[in-house]
Each structure stands twice: as C-alpha cells, then as structure tokens.
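Q: Hi! First time doing this. I have a protein sequence and I read that you can turn it into a structure. Is that right? Here it is:
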Amino acid sequence: MGLKDRTVLVTGASSGIGAAIARAYAAEGARVALTYRSNSDTGERLARELGAERDLAMAVRYSLAEPETVESAVDTVTRRWGGIDVLVANAVRWAPRRPPGEHFEDVAPGDWLSFLDDNLAPTLRTVQLAVPGMRERSWGRIVLISSHVALDGHRGQEFYGAAKSALHGFARNLAWDVGPDGVLVNVVCPGLTATERVLHGLPEHLRERELRQTPTGRLSSPEDIAAAALYLGSGANGNTTGQVVTVSGGR
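A: Yes, that's right. Below is the predicted 3D structure, encoded as structure tokens:
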C-alpha cells in the first residue's frame, strides 16, 4: 500500500471506527499518531498495542472544543516524526437527541452554532496545518470521515447532517487547490456501523430495520470503514480525489 514509514495522524482514534483505522494503517507499517479527547488510558493502551515502544505509535490529546489542542497535536507529531503524510479526520462531536416534541426551530442558536463550529473549524484547521508539509514533499493524503446522515437524512439530525455535508463540499473544492502538489483528499461516508456505541446504544428494532433495508443484510463493521480509509490514504490510491466513498452495504 506504499505506507511503510509514512506518518499518519488519525483523529478521534481511541475507539470505534477511529481505532480500526489506526490499526489498519499500523498493519501496513506506518507510524501512527492517534488522538483521544479525554480518555488518555484508552489512547495510550492502543498506542502500546500499535508499537509505541518501538516509536511506531503515539497517543496525543485533541479536543474539538479546544483549538489549542489541535495546534499542539499537529506540532507534537511534526516535531517527533518530521511531518504528517496522511491525515484521517475522524473526530466528531455527537449531536444530542432532541426531546420529543421539540422541532428544528426550537433549538437555540447558541446550541447549534457551537455544534457546527466544533465539528467544522477544528477539522479544517487540522488540514491547514498538515497541508504545507504535504506540499513540500509533493505527496499527501487527506481522508475525512462523514456519515450516512449527510446522504440519507434522519429525523432530528439537521445540524449533524449539515456539519457532515460540509465536509463533502470542502473535499471537492480542496482537491483543486492541493491536487497539483500531489495531495489527494477524499471523504468516506459510513452507513450505520456496528460500533460499540451503536450496538449498545441503538435499540435493536432500529438496527433490525436498517438490516432489512441493506442489500448485504448486515451492518458495516469498523474494519469495513477502515479498509476504505486505508485505500484512499495510501500509495495504492494514485489519482482518486474529491470523491465521497460510501460504505454502507449498498444502503
């Protein structure tokens, strides 16, 4: 996959899809920096699993609500390993569920403005910080993790859908700016995925309904999403950019 000795930064990587992505890159011989928001024990444990003692992995703190952690995370990786070759932006602030009977127009601007800001600004800033080194090396890969909500829609998820949809437009346009310098940028759009959050937090009848509407008859696993993110961020991807790749079992 052309990833041996490449440096990869995976945000939101302490569990679920992000952890699967970090493992996939590590298995290809890349150095992996994985970020966590608050659970340092989980982040450090995964880093040890991926080879921290051999300087092949490290865990760094990164919080969407704290802009200074974005700068410090990128700086830490750059100082230690000389730059970032692949950025996988997976960190997300989840949208709270609206109470029954509350409509879109009932949500206070202070709530949704901060939600959009947290989900967009830190990701775009991380890309800004990573791109100069990619341009200098004439090689780079950026993979943004979106959500099926941006394509399918879901009741009560207007602001989450808006934040994720913005990534699609961002990637399509950024591809024109960075493409001539050897940098490819794409989006992976997972369908409902069998993470612990979904398996333990989503009612079984809703999961069953999703299965009935999915041609493969199963939910994607985190490893399914990781496989797409791995390809798009690898040397095997020679000229795919500005695209949204959906991994949803045909949903």
